Amino acid sequence: MVLISKREAINRRVLKTKSILGPLMTGVAFLLAGISIVFIDPVQIIVNYKLRLTKGSTFFELLQHEIVGARISLYLFNITNAERFLAGDDEKIKLEEVGPFVFQEYRWYEDLEISEDGKQMSMTPRTRNEFIPERSIAHPKDVNLTLLNLPMLGATNLLSEYPSFLQYTFNVMAEQLGSKPIFNIDVHTYLWGYDNPLITLVHSLTPGLVYFKKIGILDRLYDAESEYRIVAGATDKDRFRIKSVKKIRRLEIGTTEDVDESVLTFETDTYEGIGYPKRLSPDTPINLYRIGICKTFKLEYLGRKPMEYGGEGLRYTLSNDTFKSDANSSKKYPDGLMDISSCFYGVPFMVSKGHFLDADPKILERIEGLKPDRNVNVNEVLVDRMVSVPFQTNFSIQLNIALGDVSYNRHTKRLANTVLPITHIKVDQPKMPQAIMNKFYLAFQLGPKLELAIFIVLTLTSIVLIGHAMRLIWYKLKTDAKGMDFEMNIDKKLLQTEIIERS
């Protein structure tokens, strides 16, 4: 028998206690760590950190670099019976859709600033575009079509409500210039505009009515003469929500000074479309704003859609409310048209869905060649719910001109009180770069699997450690019980020996 001292016995008990507490505490820590992964969702935390809008963040730097934007496909309406229609021989104007002429848009922001409290950001949007020949039927410079003379029609309509002596002066000058409401022109010039003597004439007759010298579809859409300053939200709840847009005219006629043109404020949830608040909800209303158009496009929520990379998308389409007659318009137009004349100084431009889809059928009564088709004229936006960035965009919209009573001019008399299509515009979003898609696969597919694997490893390890600690506790309790019996037996024998010796 080996006898140990009392101190040594205590030390052994302490060591046994440490050997129990070590795995027990480690097991509990691992268990809590595994549970925390389930409730905290570290993947979401990492995504939120990467997409935060603060100075120096990834998103902040990304906005200042060139971003691949929308791809714009334009289809022009070639007029095949111009002379017969204007002469009154044909009741309907016959149109032939020609295109596409495709342009890739690139966007970035300059002078990007975050407010001191981090709640707002202000920025100056910049855009450029490139013609994509491989997606187009031909180069715009190589295609000549018979199209509406927008400067002529715009000027004629602008003067339709002015005194008759101004109308007479305009008619005389237009005759001398040989201006006709329908003419033959190459597509490039039609898209980007050209110096037109009629616009100069309007300047001289009604100073300040318009500030631009030319009218072209893309020229007016990008509005190169103006500069914009956007103020938007920067918090998680209102990220990218536009609060105001300040339009600054770069050059006023007759002066070299910049002049403040207007400030648009938005009370509703309005966005440019590059991003939305985090964890977007179907209950969040969305309106899209486009630089160059002073009106917004209301989106209607359709439902959810699983994404190929593992996320969940929210589907939207253009709401028909966008194309209802505006109560603030000076005139009442048929349903299906959005009046944007206030954006273009009275030139009666209207936006509709492609081929007047969902518009008042009366609009098509004097037009032949348009075929509204919901399967062709697709309008859908798909936004990732967690990251809140658009992954798919398809719009089919149409630019039109709604002429009033222009019968005072003998050349435009047949076009009076008619809505005429100018161009069919299809907007789609190119697929995101593979490098970005890989990050989404990591976040939505590999990330959750990695979380599950770590949770399983931590949970199993904690079970093993806690089980080991329980075994040690049981063994210690059993050993301690035997030790107590042994000590009691020794004490009894010593007591008996002491009694015998005294006897």
Automatic annotation (TrEMBL):
<dbReference type="GO" id="GO:0005044">
    <property type="term" value="F:scavenger receptor activity"/>
</dbReference>
<keyword id="KW-0812">Transmembrane</keyword>
<dbReference type="InterPro" id="IPR002159">
    <property type="entry name" value="CD36_fam"/>
</dbReference>
<comment type="similarity">
    <text>Belongs to the CD36 family.</text>
</comment>
<keyword id="KW-1133">Transmembrane helix</keyword>
<keyword id="KW-0325">Glycoprotein</keyword>
<keyword id="KW-0472">Membrane</keyword>
<feature type="transmembrane region" description="Helical">
    <location>
        <begin position="452"/>
        <end position="474"/>
    </location>
</feature>
<keyword id="KW-1003">Cell membrane</keyword>
<dbReference type="Pfam" id="PF01130">
    <property type="entry name" value="CD36"/>
</dbReference>
<dbReference type="GO" id="GO:0005886">
    <property type="term" value="C:plasma membrane"/>
</dbReference>
<feature type="transmembrane region" description="Helical">
    <location>
        <begin position="20"/>
        <end position="40"/>
    </location>
</feature>
<dbReference type="GO" id="GO:0005737">
    <property type="term" value="C:cytoplasm"/>
</dbReference>
<protein>
    <recommendedName>
        <fullName>Scavenger receptor class B member 1-like</fullName>
    </recommendedName>
</protein>
